[in-house]
């Protein structure tokens, strides 16, 4: 179908698919079933835990589990955690993915200067 999602292109593609199905060239995809294999279904947490908790908290905007990951990473970084530790906690393969959480640190310059000052005084005391 391509990347365009405008109403004209979507309609053209729908007509094309309907024409192919009518000609017997394509078969409509069957509805997917949820095969849990005895395990918890993937939407169970959202339906049984997450959505009721959001309703009970009377939150008027859409909150995703991903937002909790973002808040956790931002708060841990704001508390002074190392970027490498946060990367490991979130399961990121590289630091580039974790760096997106750094924008939430308004006092990052102050933290860096304080760390530099601590390092400088520690080295200076050791030399004395």
From TrEMBL:
Domain of life: Bacteria
InterPro entries for the chain: DNA_brk_join_enz, Integrase-like_cat_sf, Integrase_catalytic
PROSITE patterns, per database record: TYR_RECOMBINASE
Keyword terms, alphabetized: DNA recombination
Domain Tyr recombinase per the UniProt entry, residue ranges: 1-114
Designated name of the protein: Tyr recombinase domain-containing protein
Organism: Actinoallomurus oryzae
């Amino acid at each position: 179908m391509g990347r365009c999602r405008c109403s004209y292109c979507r309609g053209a593609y729908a007509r094309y698919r309907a024409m192919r199905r009518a000609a017997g060239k394509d078969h409509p995809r069957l509805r997917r079933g949820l095969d849990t294999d005895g395990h918890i279904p993937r939407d169970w947490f959202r339906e049984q835990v997450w959505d009721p908790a959001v309703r009970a908290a009377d939150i008027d905007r859409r909150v995703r589990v991903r937002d909790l990951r973002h808040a956790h990473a931002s708060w841990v970084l704001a508390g002074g955690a190392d970027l490498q530790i946060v990367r490991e906690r979130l399961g990121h393969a590289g630091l580039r993915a974790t760096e997106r959480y750094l924008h939430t640190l308004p006092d990052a310059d102050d933290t860096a200067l304080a760390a530099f000052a601590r390092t400088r005084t520690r080295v200076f005391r050791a030399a004395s």
